[in-house]
Amino acid sequence: LIDSHCHLYYEPMLNNYEELIKNCKKKGINKLLTIGINLETSILNSKLSEKYREIYATVGLHPNNINETFNDEDYKNLIKKNKKIIGIGETGLDYYRTKTKLDIQRKNFIDHINLSEKCNLPLVVHTRDAENDTLQLLKLYMKKPDARLIIHCFTGTKEFAKKLLDFGAHISFSGIITFKKNNDLREVVKYVPDDKILIETDSPYLSPEPFRGKMNTPQNLHIIALEVAKIKNIDEKMIYRITTNNFNKVFKII
User: Fold this and answer.
1) Angle, nearest 10°, between helix axes 102-119 and 72-81?
2) pLDDT tens string 30-77
3) E strand or H helix that includes residue 208
4) CA–CA separation, 196 vs 141, rounded Å?
5) Distance of alpha carbon 149 from its chain centroid, rounded?
6) Can you give the pTM of this predicted structure?
7) Burial code of 97-135, b = ≥16 C-beta within 10 A, e = fewer?
């Protein structure tokens, strides 16, 4: 198993990486992708990935961090120095948390799209209450036909998923799919083709049932894998294989 989206610079992971990696391996989780949300965390991610064989990194500026300027040279310099930086993001649009300075969010998103194409790295996208604008900007600015795109922590509609899949995106699901009242989202899981699905914890957020409300860790990834297996009515080990192969393919990990 591979956790395709976590944040390893927060508690309960912070300064406890050897123990975390050991506990993950006991549950068959062998790789962790730690996601940047600003320049500071992107630098920390790079250092973590250099120190630990099991950890990979992305660099980027989260759409909620609109008070920080996105300077692509800062991120390009990190990428040049470290081959274990394998993605750009997370980036995107979040109209749920803020209704102001949306022009800055959109500009930052466009800058991330351009950077992902310049560096030939996958783009990790956060989108919340912004489906139309997300699709519009991707279509306008993601020019390469072989562009690699991951929509993280998907919570949208089946219609939105269809449009993203038509665009070639991979869709990643988190512990939210285990919440009892999320039947519509489970239908989306069923709908997404096997070769386009990823799983993540988004640690330390979004703990799956039965740990909802508690701090999350990548060790809970197997719970999400089991839920996907139940929804798709296939063997749990098959989900391990499918999601691992998808991750390795989209991020070009040999």
Assistant:
1) 30
2) 999 999 999 999 999 999 999 999 999 999 999 999 888 899 999 999
3) none
4) 22
5) 10
6) 0.96
7) eeeeebebbbebbbbbbebbbebebbbbbbbbebbebbb
